């Protein structure tokens, strides 16, 4: 029987551990602070930022939300980041992606103080991750490692196939899979839009991570018997529902489930872990900046 991986349950367990860390910091007079910056009218981005704020509130993390109209010049965003870099109450800064086309994404990521870069996207933090000395692991791939560990999915010696090479998921996921530590030691293949014979590669995966951004691109025919399938996609497709859309992953769930030994659903799979690991990084940032040790989950 196929195991349906319950992301909400795993995220709740991690968040309980994070709440204890917040108490430890509070006992020493430190409240972790996360600044979220939204420069977009996109509904999904607004939803994700609200979810982040709500989770902060639940865990006792102070959230500072900033909205910048998408037609403002890039300098408005840079000035805001500079102010947040200088604010001692803010331990972590997150600029919700994507930013508008006229704002250069790399310049945004490089503007954030790497000590406060709780997304782990600044080149200094990317370099640390690649070197095997991560400070802040990017939230989604780190969450996927937590999901695999929670369901005893062994990565050591496994064939891991990552479909997608984004800076947010694909690249850091592949880097974590090849590290010489728990959750790593996998023989890792990264596939993308120019990959030839994609199905041949995906069928070979013991652990298949789909992060393509293309709704239901990976179907059962592309999944090997007994694989663990991790679906990162959260795509809104038009549907006759109250909201006018439904959420589907990058994996065609029903056909992939027939082949997989374990699979994440959408929603309720990887998504909740993205938020939980952001809280983790924020508390880690507060701990590093205050010098107060915490026992992270
Ligand atoms: N600065 C960043 N921007 C973006 C990131 C990121 O990690 N940092 N990741 C994605 C979006 N994302 C977080 O920002 C995100 C996506 C999905 C979820 C989630 O919990 N999804 C739910 C469904 C939610 C819904 O109803 O729409 C689920 O899958 O169960 C959380 C965070 C791009 N931008």
Automatic annotation (TrEMBL):
**Boundaries of every Tetrahydrofolate dehydrogenase/cyclohydrolase NAD(P)-binding domain copy:** 138-288
One GO cellular component term of this record is: cytosol
- Which controlled-vocabulary keywords does the entry list? Amino-acid biosynthesis, Histidine biosynthesis, Hydrolase, Methionine biosynthesis, Multifunctional enzyme, NADP, One-carbon metabolism, Oxidoreductase, Purine biosynthesis
The source's superkingdom equals: Archaea
The reply to whether Amino-acid biosynthesis figures as a keyword in the UniProt entry is yes
Q: Which GO terms describe its biological process?
A: L-histidine biosynthetic process; methionine biosynthetic process; purine nucleotide biosynthetic process; tetrahydrofolate interconversion
Which GO molecular function entries does the Swiss-Prot or TrEMBL record give? methenyltetrahydrofolate cyclohydrolase activity; methylenetetrahydrofolate dehydrogenase (NADP+) activity
Q: In which pathway does it act?
A: One-carbon metabolism; tetrahydrofolate interconversion
> In the UniProt record, does the keyword DNA-binding occur?
no
Record field: catalytic activity = (6R)-5,10-methenyltetrahydrofolate + H2O = (6R)-10-formyltetrahydrofolate + H(+); (6R)-5,10-methylene-5,6,7,8-tetrahydrofolate + NADP(+) = (6R)-5,10-methenyltetrahydrofolate + NADPH
The segment(s) forming the Tetrahydrofolate dehydrogenase/cyclohydrolase catalytic domain are 5-119
Cite the EC number.
1.5.1.5, 3.5.4.9
A Pfam family it matches: THF_DHG_CYH
Sorted alphabetically, which InterPro entries does this protein's record hold?
A: Aminoacid_DH-like_N_sf, NAD(P)-bd_dom_sf, THF_DH/CycHdrlase, THF_DH/CycHdrlase_cat_dom, THF_DH/CycHdrlase_NAD-bd_dom
| Record-listed NADP(+) binding positions | 164-166, 234
Role according to the record = Catalyzes the oxidation of 5,10-methylenetetrahydrofolate to 5,10-methenyltetrahydrofolate and then the hydrolysis of 5,10-methenyltetrahydrofolate to 10-formyltetrahydrofolate.
The entry's family comment says: Belongs to the tetrahydrofolate dehydrogenase/cyclohydrolase family.
Quaternary form? Homodimer.
Could you tell me which HAMAP family the record lists for this protein? THF_DHG_CYH
- Tell me the protein's name: Bifunctional protein FolD
Organism, scientific name: Halogeometricum rufum
What gene codes for this chain? Answer: folD
């Amino acid at each position: 029987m196929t195991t349906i991986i319950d992301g909400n349950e795993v995220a709740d367990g991690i968040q309980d551990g994070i709440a204890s860390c917040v108490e430890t910091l509070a006992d020493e007079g430190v409240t972790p602070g996360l600044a979220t910056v939204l420069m977009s009218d996109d509904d999904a981005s607004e939803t994700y930022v609200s979810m982040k704020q709500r989770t902060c509130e639940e865990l006792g993390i102070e959230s500072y939300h900033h909205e910048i109209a998408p037609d403002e010049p890039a300098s408005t965003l840079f000035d805001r980041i500079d102010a947040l870099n200088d604010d001692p109450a803010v331990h972590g800064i997150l600029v919700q992606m994507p930013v508008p086309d006229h704002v250069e994404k790399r310049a945004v990521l490089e503007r954030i103080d790497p000590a406060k870069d709780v997304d782990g996207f600044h080149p200094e933090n990317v370099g640390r991750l690649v070197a095997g000395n991560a400070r802040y692991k990017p939230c989604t791939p780190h969450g996927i490692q937590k999901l695999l560990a929670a369901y005893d999915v062994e990565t050591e010696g496994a064939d891991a196939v990552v479909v997608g090479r984004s800076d947010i998921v694909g690249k850091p996921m592949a880097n974590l899979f090849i590290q010489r530590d728990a959750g790593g030691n996998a023989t890792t293949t990264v596939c993308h839009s120019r990959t030839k014979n994609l199905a041949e590669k995906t069928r070979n995966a013991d652990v298949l991570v789909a992060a393509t951004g293309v709704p239901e691109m990976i179907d059962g025919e592309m999944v090997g018997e007994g694989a663990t399938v991790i679906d990162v996609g959260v795509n809104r497709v038009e549907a006759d529902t109250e909201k006018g859309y439904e959420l589907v992953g990058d994996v065609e769930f029903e056909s992939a489930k027939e082949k997989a030994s374990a699979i994440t659903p959408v929603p309720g799979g990887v998504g909740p872990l993205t938020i939980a690991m952001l809280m983790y990084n924020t508390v880690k940032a507060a701990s590093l900046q205050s010098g107060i040790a915490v026992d992270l989950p």
